[in-house]
Amino acid sequence: MSFAPSSPPSVSQQQRAPTTPSTARVMPTNVMNTPTAPQGTSAPSTTGAAAPAAPSTTSSANAPNTPGTEIRGRERQGSFGGSTRAKVLKPFNTANIKILLLENVNETAVRALRDQGYQVETHAKALAEDVLIEKIKDVHCVGIRSKTKLTKKVLDAAEKLGVIGCFCIGTNQVDLEHAASKGIAVFNSPFSNSRSVAELVIAEIVLLSRQLGDRNNEMHQGIWSKVSANCYEIRGKTLGIVGYGHIGSQLSVLAESMGMRVYFHDVVPLMPLGTSKQVGSLDELLEISDFVTLHVPETEDTKNMIGEHELNKMKQGSFLINASRGTVVQISALAKALRSGHIGGAAVDVFPKEPAANGKFFESELIGCPNTLLTPHIGGSTEEAQSMIGVEVSQALIKFINNGTSIGAVNFPEVDLRAIRDEENSIRLCYTHANVPGVLLRITNILADHNVDKQFSDSKGKIAYLMADISDVTPEQIQDIYRRVSETPTNIVTRVLY
Ligand SMILES: NC(=O)C1=CN([C@@H]2O[C@H](COP(=O)(O)OP(=O)(O)OC[C@H]3O[C@@H](n4cnc5c(N)ncnc54)[C@H](O)[C@@H]3O)[C@@H](O)[C@H]2O)C=CC1
Ligand SMILES: O=C(O)C(=O)COP(=O)(O)O
């Protein structure tokens, strides 16, 4: 999928791209956006760049599909008039699709992607930026978790990248806008680890309330210190939730079942679950809560959301929990409030700077603060969550690579079509383009002499995405459609699937 340049490609850029098929049906380097001959048809003669040999597939667990065979493991998708079978789209040899999975992405994902015949390279850790820049150069898809930063600089090094999978909830580690401008869709797992985070927070509420971290530390040092002063039941206490999304609302239900009163603050009005109540401002929430827990995404608005002013607003001896993002809390202000006793304890799972890998040194002003639980970003780290995330994100990636479906993308217009007719000479056009007036007319003109079975397009910010299924096209016409669409001045990425 060489996924095209960030700005609409110039004619010379287009000329460099291999836009003509190989007679040998070996996939060109730009495997995901360059049409070859449809199955069962003879390929037109080639005049373009010589097609490179297919790369080795040593990292692929399964035997790759040979060119011209169907992609395995794909479901048929519903029926439609005139044909009972949905076509399995295969415009490229799946063995030529290179996928880089970092940060110990779950085995469920590795298996699902290898089952497609893709080449999958896995790494247990995040990569240093220079290594990442080298590795990302020729991959079509990268899978990451919360640690890998896909900055503009890294994305600009990725010559063929078409899709990113964040095998987690947060997507703040990716420059989403820049990715979109290059036609790179980003998928995440919006709720597969929410329950794991909510359960951890429930545990932390009890642990903080009973000063369990400190008692445990003392016991490991051989110190017996039985105290009840400032230790409380959580029943009847007030939990203040900041950010009432998937995690916050799940937590709300669990906390009420433990006998807590729940209030929440969110930037949008939301239906309170159980008997919880939304309050009008953050300050109001801070003033009434015995426990404050943060479940907001990292955005410009949430950076340093909890600093000295907010900590002072919190009740004397109340507790703070942060399992959202490290940048949401000013660490020095929190350390000061803990040491002064104004804040009775804190549980912190996320930090502004987190070590790159297990075994690396962790440094924080919070080390040694009283009744302070520090955990290494494990909110979503359960077997259940990781396995579900692996399945969910890998399916989204497969659907995008094989079918062009962008449903669930966080930075991209969400577009899907009913299954394409199971006919040799039907194709699916996937066109990512600049969201400016006049584009649809131009595409309609290109497709004017063809039978467009169905078409859908949507936009998000500066980019738009169109999918169209076209029947009764010859291999020469496929080349012509591909060439003319990809040469439009608004083109970001054009793919033809068949
Ligand atoms: N510690 C860990 O391992 C994990 C951490 N997370 C973090 O938790 C965050 C929240 O996750 P979800 O609940 O799934 O997200 P979500 O998107 O479902 O909910 C976030 C809520 O925060 C609200 N919000 C946004 N800006 C706000 C502001 N300035 N003030 C008040 N409310 C605001 C939104 O309206 C939304 O209701 C993620 O973005 C991620 O960064 C998620 C999973 C695991
Ligand atoms: O899902 C998230 O946003 C998380 O913070 C979990 O990140 P992780 O997959 O543990 O790197």
UniProtKB/TrEMBL annotation:
Keyword DNA damage: no
Domain ACT: 428-498
GO BP terms, alphabetized: L-serine biosynthetic process
Catalysed transformations (reactions): (2R)-3-phosphoglycerate + NAD(+) = 3-phosphooxypyruvate + NADH + H(+)
EC number: 1.1.1.95
Polar residues: compositionally biased ranges: 30-39
One of the record's GO molecular function terms: (S)-2-hydroxyglutarate dehydrogenase activity
Superkingdom assignment: Eukaryota
Keywords assigned: NAD, Oxidoreductase
Record field: compositional bias (Low complexity): 40-67
Region annotation (Disordered) ranges: 1-85
InterPro entries: ACT-like_dom_sf, ACT_dom, D-iso_2-hydroxyacid_DH_PdxB, D-isomer_2_OHA_DH_cat_dom, D-isomer_DH_CS, D-isomer_DH_CS1, D-isomer_DH_NAD-bd, NAD(P)-bd_dom_sf
Pathway: Amino-acid biosynthesis; L-serine biosynthesis; L-serine from 3-phospho-D-glycerate: step 1/3
Family: Belongs to the D-isomer specific 2-hydroxyacid dehydrogenase family.
Name the UniProt record assigns to this protein: phosphoglycerate dehydrogenase
Protein species of origin: Linnemannia elongata AG-77
